[in-house]
């Protein structure tokens, strides 16, 4: 399910920082790598996780891949999750009119 992929992607500080950088503009892997002290294979893995979660997309321009944020996917996924778990974001169930059980 996409929600699990998104939360897995967001579980990493590096990936959250990549999303923050990409929120400003698209960047190549090299430009992203300049901001981190990690190996290229590690960065590639982080970019793959973000791409598989649908949070970023890569577009080949010449010899470089430019990564950009897929903002609607992040917003829609998180909004859907909040609506699912937050009672104020959905209609409340009607309480039964029966006797209240004090054991609950």
From TrEMBL:
Task: Give the UniProt keywords, A-Z.
Answer: DNA-binding, Transcription, Transcription regulation
Q: Name one Pfam family in it.
A: HTH_20
State whether keyword Transcription regulation applies: yes
| GO MF assignments | DNA binding; DNA-binding transcription factor activity
HTH arsR-type domain: residues covered: 1-89
CDD domains documented for this protein: HTH_ARSR (cd00090)
Matching InterPro entries, A to Z? ArsR-like_HTH, HTH_ArsR_DNA-bd_dom, HTH_MetalResp_TranReg, WH-like_DNA-bd_sf, WH_DNA-bd_sf
Q: Name it.
A: Transcriptional regulator
Organism, scientific name? Candidatus Endobugula sertula (Bugula neritina bacterial symbiont)
Q: What is the lineage of its organism?
A: Bacteria, Pseudomonadati, Pseudomonadota, Gammaproteobacteria, Cellvibrionales
């Amino acid at each position: 399910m996409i929600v699990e992929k998104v939360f897995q992607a967001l579980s990493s500080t590096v990936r959250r920082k990549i999303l923050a950088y990409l929120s400003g503009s698209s960047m190549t892997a090299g430009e992203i790598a300049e901001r981190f002290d990690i190996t290229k294979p590690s960065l590639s893995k982080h970019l793959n996780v973000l791409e598989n979660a649908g949070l970023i997309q890569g577009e080949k321009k010449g010899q470089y891949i430019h990564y950009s944020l897929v903002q609607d996917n992040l917003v829609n996924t998180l909004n859907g999750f909040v609506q699912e778990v937050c009672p104020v974001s959905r209609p409340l169930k009607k309480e039964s009119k029966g006797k209240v059980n004090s054991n609950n």
